[in-house]
Design brief:
The protein is 33% helix and 25% strand. The protein has 415 residues and is an alpha+beta fold. The strands form five sheets. Strands 1, 2, 7, 8, 9, 10 and 20 form a seven-stranded mixed beta sheet that branches. The protein has a seven-stranded antiparallel beta sheet with strand order 17-16-13-14-15-12-18. A hairpin with a 4-residue loop joins strand 8 (132-137) and strand 9. Bound molecules: flavin-adenine dinucleotide.
């Protein structure tokens, strides 16, 4: 049975950050990773470009029951520390409207930099292909059991992530490990994911992208709003703005509530202005049919769908329709309804909502139940919005927990 000062379970961005932070002290660290490669998920982040963090920070970008705690943590390790951390790893960053990427916009560079930094540390041992099946707290520390080995340590950090992400390895096993040690679980759901609809027109608009303001209605009540590009698919609707709202849509669907979206395809005009605009177009261009008039501001494939919602067709001449019908058309453009009846699961989601309750950890991210046990990253009940906030949370919580665990071990050695 081999002994270490610190065992970190899961080598994602949180676990690797924790290992590097802890390695500054003279302690022996074992980093255990279930898959065959450390930091694998980083490769798929930001469509292969890795959106590391964001220069705009607001607590609303982190969804959690304990916003104050998250703010305090970000004060200790926020975006500027993240930029410094990556500069030390030899990675310059690029700011694109506040979204921070590695300068070469290659996620593989980020993963490789972590790997070479960890490989160079004499006091970090990495074992890949080691799925941890049990963590048992005892009087003097922990026993950590994999399929083939048992290790002991003074301290453990659980950084196993959640369920979200492509491929295997995201089995939520960290939640079970923590559960056996008495920790609770805020119910988990996919967040930052696409929404499904059974609207019959979807096959015809598949592939269309357009800007919209989206209102998420739950049981008929408007609840959340986002603006951005919509990506129409044959199963429903996707895009960053939809991802941002998905967390709330998923929870509402799981609670059996009715979920729909109202899509505003022309945010620049209110209903009156749009009505006036249509009247001018109809007067000036009476030779145009309805389809041609709407093509002036809507993607071509979307025009028959929007017209049909107002019981019109692309061939109708708008100067022949009643003003009530024209108002129906205005409403169809400004608040197009889309019923949502499902969502894409963890395999396609970017993050897990829920996890180990933040009230069960201290400001150092130490378990309130077991001294020397720490948590960091997606395993905790904090999910960021799109824009680099989930990686920022992994780096922040990884660094804080790694430093805290190292201090705990130094104190324990002196006792
Ligand atoms: C497609 C996609 C794109 C994304 N893009 C971005 C982006 O651009 N910006 C951003 O901020 N966020 C992005 N995210 C979210 C971000 O990647 C995650 O929030 C982040 O990786 C979480 O880090 P983590 O270390 O907590 O967990 P993970 O990255 O999930 O790492 C956990 C590690 O633990 C290992 N593990 C799990 N259980 C065990 C066990 N029992 N024993 C041993 N090892 C175990 C896993 O194999 C894994 O390597 C994206 C996510 C996805 C899926």
């Amino acid at each position: 049975m081999k002994s270490y000062d610190l065992i970190i379970v899961g080598a994602g961005p949180a676990g690797m950050s924790a290992a590097i932070a802890a390695s500054r002290e003279n302690i022996e660290i074992l980093l255990l990773e279930g898959s065959d490669k450390i930091g694998r998920k980083i490769l798929v982040t930001g469509n292969g470009k890795c959106n590391l963090t964001n220069s705009y920070q607001d607590i609303a970008c982190y969804r959690t029951e304990t916003p104050d705690m998250v703010l305090r943590l970000l004060d200790r390790f926020g975006p500027s520390q993240t930029a410094g951390f990556f500069r030390d790893l030899g990675i310059l960053t690029r700011d694109k409207n506040g979204y921070i990427y590695p300068y070469n916009e290659q996620a593989s560079t980020v993963r490789d930099a972590f790997e070479s930094c960890i490989g160079e540390k004499k006091n970090i041992t990495v074992r890949t292909g080691c799925h941890v099946d049990e963590v048992l707290p005892g009087r003097k520390g922990f026993r950590v059991i994999t399929g083939t080995d048992t290790y002991t340590s003074t301290s453990v950090i659980l950084t196993t992530g959640g369920y979200a992400g492509p491929g295997k390895g995201h089995d939520g096993s960290g939640f079970k490990l923590a559960g056996i040690m008495g920790h609770g679980l805020v119910p988990t759901y996919p967040a930052l994911t696409a929404l499904k609809s059974s609207a019959p027109f979807l096959k015809k608009v598949k592939g269309v992208r357009n800007q919209a303001k989206i209102t998420l209605n739950i049981d008929g009540e408007p609840r959340y709003r986002e603006k951005g590009e919509l990506q129409w698919t044959d199963y429903g609707i996707s895009g960053v703005a939809v991802f941002q709202l998905s967390r709330y849509a998923v929870i509402a669907l799981e609670e059996g509530k009715t979920v729909s979206l109202s899509l505003d395809f022309l945010q620049e005009m209110d209903e009156n202005q749009l009505y006036e605009y249509l009247c001018v177009q109809i007067n000036n261009c009476s030779y145009k049919d309805a389809g041609e008039i709407l093509k002036g501001f809507l993607p071509e494939k979307l025009t028959p769908v929007v017209l049909r919602e107002a019981h019109l067709s692309v061939h109708d001449k708008l100067h022949q329709v009643s003003s009530d019908k024209l108002q129906d058309l205005v409403r169809s453009i400004k608040s197009f309804p889309l019923r949502i009846n499902g969502y894409l699961g963890y395999e396609k989601a970017q993050v897990t909502r829920g996890g180990i309750p933040m009230k069960e950890v201290s400001d150092q991210l130490e378990s309130v139940l077991h001294k020397g046990l720490y948590f960091a990253g997606e395993i905790l009940d904090v999910d960021g919005t799109c824009g680099g906030y989930n990686l920022q949370w992994a780096f922040s919580s990884g660094n804080v927990s790694g430093k805290a665990a190292a201090e705990y071990i130094i104190k324990a050695k002196k006792r």
